[in-house]
Structure prediction request, 314 residues.
Amino acid sequence: MNKFIELIENAESIAIFGHIRPDGDCVGSSLGLYNYICEQYDGKKVSVFLEEIPTKFNFLKGADKIMHEKTDAVYDLGISLDCSDTDRHGIFMDIYANAKKKACIDHHRSNLGFGDYYYCDPDASSTSEIVCRFIDMDKISKEVAECLYLGIIHDTGVLKYPCTSETTMQYAGKLISLGARSQYIIDETFYKVSYKQNLLTGRALLDSKLYLDGKVIESVITREIFEQFDAGKEETEGIIDKLRVTEGVEVAIFAYQLNDETFKFSLRSIEKIDVSCIAVAFGGGGHYRASGFEAKGNYQENLEKVLEMIKQQF
Ligand code: 5GP
Ligand code: MN
Prediction:
C-alpha cells in the first residue's frame, strides 16, 4: 500500500486544498479525491476548501459540498493538490498549516517541496493524473471518473499539450470506460463560451501586439475594458489559447487587471522558451510552457521586464 493512501487510512478527519482561482485540474483533482475517500472509507470527515468555482463545474459530484469559508477546525490530515506553494491556498492557508499531518501532491516544476509527504511529478500532465496513480482505479465510481477526466482534459488542452503522455491517454481511456461523459465534459466545460467571453476575446485579439520580430504576442484587459463589457476574470478564460496559436509566435503573454496596482499575467510557450522561470522571478510559478504570476506596479514596465527575459532566452 502506498504511503499517501496509508496517510488517508490513518486519518479520521481530512481537509483537501487547491489553489486560488480554481481551474479544471484543481477542481477535478480535489473533488475526485474527495468523492473517492467518501465512497471508499465510511465514517471519515472529509472537507474540500476552495474559493468559488466556475459554475460550469457545478455538475461534478460534491461541488455543492465545497467549503468557501475559513474554519478553526484542526484536521488530522491536510492534502494540498495542484499547488506549487502554500500561499496558493489563499484564505485557507492556516487550516492547512494547522493540520496534524500534511501531504502535497502536485505537478508544477516550480514546486520547491513542502509537507510531511511530498509527491511532485513535473512530467505528469495534471494533478488529476497523479490522483489516478494513487487510487484504486478498479474501485472508482462514474462520478469520481468524471472529476478526474475533467481535470486531465483541462490541463492537457483536451489531450493535446506536450504534457500528454501515453499513460495520460490510458488513464483518460480508463475513465471513459468507467462512465465519464467525454463529449459533454469537453464541450460544456472546455470549449463552450458565453457571448460576453466572445466579445472580450475579440477585444483582446484586436488590441494584441507583436514583439521580437513577431515571436511574442501580448494583450491586456484593463479594468476599464472589463467595465465596458460588464465582464470579469471568468470571461478572460481561453484568450491566452487564442493568442498562443498565432502563426510565428513562440510566446504568448496575456494579462488582466486585478485591482488599482496589480495585474495577473499568464505566459504560454510553444516549445523552446521556459516561461516558468520568468513567472518564478516575479514570485509566481507554473510549468515550462504554461505559467503565471501577479505583478504590482506599472503594467508597461513589468511587460518590458518580461520581454527582456524572453529576449535573453532567445
Ligand atoms: P494560468 O496562466 O492559466 O493562470 O496558469 C498557468 C499555470 O501557472 C497553472 O499551472 C497555474 O497553477 C500557474 N500559476 C498561475 N499563476 C500563478 C501564480 O501567481 N503563482 C504560482 N505559483 N503559479 C501560478
Ligand atoms: Mn494542474
Remarks:
- The chain has a mean pLDDT of 97.
- Residues 19, 84-85, 88, 108, 110, 266, 284-287, 290-294 surround guanosine-5'-monophosphate (ligand 1) (CB under 6 Å).
- The chain has two domains: 2-191, 195-313.
